[in-house]
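In this supplementary section we document a worked example of the pipeline. Step one takes a protein sequence of length 246 as its only input; no multiple sequence alignment statistics are reported here. Step two produces a three-dimensional model, which step three serialises into structure tokens for compact storage. The input and output of this example are shown verbatim.
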Amino acid sequence: MISFLWVNNEVGSILPVAELCGIAEGSGIPSHVDAVAALGQVPINFAATRASALSVSAHKIGGPVGVGALVLGRHTIADSLLHGGSQQRARSGSQNVAGAVAFAAALDLALGEGRAPDPERISRLARLRDRLIAGVRDIDPSAVLRGSSDEHARVPGNAHFTFPGCQGDSLVFLLDAAGVSVSVGSACQAGVAEISHVLMAMGLSEAEAAGALRFTLGPDTRETEVDSLLAALPAAIDRARSAGLN
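The serialised model returned by step three reads:
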């Protein structure tokens, strides 16, 4: 089986899902798409991907943590890890009804009746992202935007930079002290003192990857919050760069 992300949760790049699933299908390989970071950011049409399976998570769109969904193709046969009843074709045990209802409510809010991200909301997010990117580049021309350079191949709620000579953890701490929440990488790696395997796989050196900083925006992000970030960033960069990479 091949398993890959629809959207990279660190640098925000959108992968050519249908093309990858088509290659897998042509070779007789089942494909699983992790669409957790894509939900609410890009339109998701499971049938059009021709994937064998697709997974999503509620917390990315304001639903409860620990609730998700696995979508299986009509011809996909999945072996149960928990044996017992055969509810939902592949899931045994009692269902989390409250969690499922809360996930459905979050989907209604995030996607509406059209079951696709609202174009106006996505456009607004993209404008905020582009404003943030332009502001960071004005503040530090040496900062490098990572991920796809094509704005249409990057989700609207993500901007990922590396800052030469800075430790990403230092920037997170300094910006947090200024009331701005950012991250070094994915939440999966929070608290893990390791260089991002994503950036290393992209060909960055350890020194370059050490200066990573991920900015994420959501439906409730306001222009004033982007302004607060850009106001706090110059001092944070200066102090982080003074401290160096050690």
